[in-house]
Predict the 3D structure of the following.
Amino acid sequence: MAKYKPIDMVKEYRGKICEHSDTYFQKRGRTLCTGRICDPRDLDKKPYSANEIATHTKFQQTYAAIKALTPEQKAAYKEAFEKQSKYSTLRGYVFAQEYAKLA
């Protein structure tokens, strides 16, 4: 009896297939995720709400705080990151810690 080895049609996707595709694939940490964009948002018809603008501002403040970290703070974050298992990347861990400070 012969061994049957299935052919992997698609091993991995990263990022969007194209801008007009309604399905996208991306890798988050160790997980491959898919999603669909059925109706892209038209900002002329539906502009950002006050809550969305506040969230955007909070993200910008978080990234500014990350850029302003000293080498000692970065080293402390790296040390703390190695002791935890929730976050798969150092960048994600640092972002979560700095974002929590603004809350």
User: Anything to note?
Assistant: The longest strand covers residues 23-28. The longest helix spans residues 50-67.
